[in-house]
Amino acid sequence: MRFLPSVAALLLAAPTAAAFAPQSRGSFAARANVGTAPLTRMAEGTVDNGPPYSGPATKPILDSVKSPDDMKGLNLQELKQLAHELRWEVLEAVSKTGGHLSSSLGVIELTVALHYVFDMPEDDIIWDVSHQCYPHKILTGRRERMSTLRQMGGISGFCKRKESKYDSFGAGHSSTSISVAQGMSVAKKMLNKRRNNCIAVIGDGAITGGMAYEAMNSAGYLRSRMIVVLNDNGQVSLPTGTQSAGGVIPASQLSAYTSNLLVSKPFQDFRDFAKSFNKLLPTEVQGVNKRIDEYARGIVSGGTLFEELGFYYVGPVDGHDMDNMVPILEKLRDSPNDKPVLLHIKTTKGMGYPPAEKASDRMHGVAKFNLGTGVQVKGKSSAPSLTSIFANALIDQATEDRTIVGITAAMPGGTGMDIFGRRFPKRTFDVGIAEQHAVTMAAGMACEGLKPFCCIYSTFMQRGYDQVMHDVAIQNLPVRMILDRAGLVGNDGPTHHGCYDLAYMGAIPNLTIMAPSDEIELRNMVATCAAFDDGPTVLRYPRGTGYGAEKLTKLFGYELPDGEVPTKGEVLPIGKGRIVRRPGGVGDVNGSASSRGKKREDRVCILSIGTRLHESLVAANEVEEADPELGVTVADARFMKPLDVDLIRELADDHGAMVIVEEGSIGGFGDHVLHFLALDGAFDDGKLKVRPMVIPDVLIEAGTQHEQYEQAGLNSRHIRGTLLRLTKRVKVPVLEELES
């Protein structure tokens, strides 16, 4: 509705919360006169004059900002210039290191505005997931360390409390920020702290997670003073637009709801916001402004979902328009009201960099790239990724079995469901960031005769653990749980490692758990899962690529027809492992031609599960090259549950020492084998020595996967050293002696 000039004038002259709360500095609106600024239209995208793209030659304002305090005296134009310089600083840094790019580009203006308006670390800003935190890191004293981003010994790609006092809360997984902000707000109030400003920044993808709804429900009920900034960029899944049973739209009805708000309502500017702000004023002031508020209700959305949950809804606001965003945040900061607020902003993911805005995934996660063109610099490996191998193997099975369906929780690109979805869109289900729902939905499908493949990162399956137990295992439903990114994952660090799945899944009855050692075994295990209907199965595999035909032949001992890697998987016998190498090498699987290991104490074996088999075979070759008397057998367990007890007994009876190798934590495969051996009496005569090699009980920080396995002590040289110590070939157990 239109407002008469006299009403608008009356409204802007009405008492505001600023009159009832002391301010440490004058408001931005007063200094910049943005209260009468015209509405800034949301940018549809950056004007693209084509490559090469380049930023400012100098960054004088950014150079002057060593901490957020240095921003407080800047005026409007200087803040805008700071945002421009900051955007190109992020681009230049990530182009050299790789990382999460477009999410950071989309919140540049928001980050500047938040740090200008609020006073960290006394005020708390919680970034949900926190992959968008690069501009925040630069403004909080870590600019000089951005060259070490996501590297061993460098700064994390996520917020990390031990890294900076400005990182209010660590993250990496989604949908946690509102709960954190509420907890902090309650604590500040109970401890009578002078200031209570807690801001949760959450995206339209993360807010689809059930935990976010739980927190909003609680915040409204408890009237927790907090601000939730809903960063709405239309990118719910990675990538959004994957073909699925829901179409190519974002995988969230909430996203459709907020999109409708954006379509049905114009962007709010500061004048519009001021008209509706009466709802947050003290009761006596509301009485003065009651008549004005009746007019104002026509401007804002009434009865929104967020208001029904007890939030005061503000928006939508252009998230790149600092003229309006800064004074709105100031008003919210200075309100004495305890009611939680949801500020709904619309942003463009990848804003300001045309290659990112045009890419299907908006250049969400990138390798190093050419800043001038946006072209990423990737390795020249000709081997396909294990994720793509899995997806194509599943397509093969689904082609022959129409009951096979795929489920993912907002990660179609990372799990291969985007590939599966292109072939079978109506049999692909992206449920958003909702791992619990994904598992139980799969259980329901299994009840009715479908064969659901529930494809979730290992680290994210932790969030659906109760559902695996209660909804799948207890009822023995044939749900196929596919855990990508098992083991150590590289640059994302400890929040994304998948090294706990063997331990947490291994404790649940009725599960069949398997882990492939290479791409051939991965295809075989996909076929095995598809064929197994007697209960739930778990297939976990790491981030990485296949080895290719040459290595599979020479190191693993495969006999490949025509020298080609098979593209069709074969069903494996459940719970049966295999001997890959006997003393003398992979060409002598029966061990008949070898004269090595004539005495039991000179016969050693390696029992591996998963892709550490490669390192085990390398270590075995190196040990035999170093000592002509030692004979090394290498076995691939394939299955953790059920264990191949016949294979384990054979190895225990015939060898003096056994090394158990896995890319998992304490409590996993090695512990299951040790438990069996102890109960089976294998240690009773004192003739068998066993050493489990697992990821140690520490958090391994970001780095390359090789660096991380080096730190974990699970590369070939560590396995070699363990074998030599067990056979008393080295006196002092230090790796430096092995290298010499």
Automatic annotation (TrEMBL):
Q: Which GO terms describe its molecular function?
A: 1-deoxy-D-xylulose-5-phosphate synthase activity; metal ion binding
Q: What are the alphabetically sorted keywords of the record?
A: Isoprene biosynthesis, Magnesium, Metal-binding, Signal, Thiamine biosynthesis, Thiamine pyrophosphate, Transferase
Q: Name the domain of life.
A: Eukaryota
Query: Which residues belong to the signal peptide in this entry?
Result: 1-19
- Which GO annotations describe the biological process of this protein? glyceraldehyde-3-phosphate metabolic process; terpenoid biosynthetic process; thiamine biosynthetic process
Q: Which InterPro entries match?
A: Dxylulose-5-P_synthase, THDP-binding, Transketo_C/PFOR_II, Transketolase-like_Pyr-bd, Transketolase_BS, Transketolase_C, Transketolase_CS
Subunit and partners: Homodimer.
Which protein, by its recorded name, is this?
A: 1-deoxy-D-xylulose-5-phosphate synthase
